[in-house]
Specification:
This protein is about 15% helix and about 25% strand. The protein has about 120 residues and is of the alpha+beta class. The chain has one domain. It has a four-stranded antiparallel β-sheet. The model is unreliable at about 1-15 (pLDDT under 50).
């Protein structure tokens, strides 16, 4: 399996195209690849962003929630009601209460290291 570093560096040529003045691109042969997984299973990693730093270095950022699924503090029903959570018609979203979890924004840099 390719390393996180090789997958990220594999994105670099495509990312550099975003700074050119060429017409819009048509992407073909796309593939979904896992370049990171939360240290826990099940894991929650979402809201991925990718951009070029000054000088052209690619950067990936994402949010991660870790911590116990059971026995942790949860948002009160009053707070959930004020937030209209779960959304109407989506009772399955009630499990997305991340109160009491360790929330981090992580950045993956080209050498494969994580920083937060």
């Amino acid at each position: 399996m390719p390393t996180r570093r090789s997958l990220l560096l594999g994105l670099a040529p495509a990312l550099s195209l975003a700074q050119t003045t060429t017409p819009p691109l048509a992407l073909t042969d796309l593939a979904i690849k896992t370049i990171y997984h939360s240290p826990e299973t099940p894991g929650y990693t979402s809201w991925v962003g990718c951009w070029l730093m000054p000088g052209g270095t690619p950067m990936i950022s994402f949010h991660q929630a870790t911590g116990p699924l059971k026995g942790r503090y949860r948002a009160s029903q009053e707070i959930l009601h004020r937030l209209s959570w779960p959304p109407p018609g989506k009772p399955e979203f009630a499990n997305y209460d991340m109160t009491g979890l360790d929330m981090k924004t992580l950045h993956l840099v080209p050498n494969g290291d994580l920083s937060n």
